[in-house]
Hints:
The protein has one helix and four strands, in the order ββββα. It has one domain. It is globular, with a radius of gyration of 12 Å. Strands 2-3-1-4 form a four-stranded antiparallel sheet. Helices cover 11% and strands 24% of the residues. By secondary structure, it is an alpha+beta fold. It has one helix at residues 57-64; strands spanning 2-8, 29-30, 36-42, 54-55.
Amino acid sequence: MRKYVIISADEVNEVDFNKVIEQSANDLRYSSDSSKTIVKYEGTQPSFLSGKTEYTWVEIMTILATDEWIPDEPE
């Protein structure tokens, strides 16, 4: 089962891209203000994410539907 974790953008350099679904930092989805991002993985939580909250697909979709994650519309 796929799991999702929100991390600070400052923590991206700590991500081992061999242990998550994304291939690189360029594949990550960032919050509207670029302060947070989400990483996905399957199986056991990678050690660099230890102590972080895991979300299910339904939970992360609910979070992504908030203003914090929806990009502003161009004017």
